[in-house]
Amino acid sequence: MTLTAPTPGPVPALAPVPTTAMAPTADPRTVTQHDLSRVEGLPALPERTLAPEELRRLVEALAARPELWQEFAAGDAGQRHYASLHRDAHLDVWALFWNVTDDTGWHDHDTSSGAVAVARGELEESHLRIPGPHSRRRLAEGASIQFGPDYIHRITGGVDGAVSIHAYSPPLWRLGQYSIDEHGVLRRITVSYAEELRPR
Ligand SMILES: [Fe+2]
Question: pTM for this structure?
């Protein structure tokens, strides 16, 4: 009896897809698409570091303007990715597209303050508690949060196809990524904003 190797089937296309990080890559979707200081109807962008409440007003306004970000979601259902909407010396703004399997892991934003608005679907945000169970809350469509550099959190997709708008000031350069080992020991490593945020 002769055994023959199975005929290989079609090879699935493995297009590179940036993962859910706040990071630019060579992917064209991450090219800054808008100079938000020139978009009418948005809060004015001061030429200085923005406060958390200013970032929050900006992401809330952007979440209500899908024409500024929805083009980056089209055709990518089921694949997580992000797009840089704006970056200058004081501010960077991102649109993130989520699935329920997406998980940033525990992280901080180093020296940056930030804000997040849920533009579509929902996210879940967790906070680290020592001791005790970590807290977890739902961020529904229309919800927003703001935070300073001391903030530690973890965000996961609440539903497939969720979209959130993120703004950071000063612009993200580094983040702290945390791991908790089997003995409960917490560790922090510094990661570049160009690296993928993920559980560690
Ligand atoms: Fe974050």
Answer: 0.82
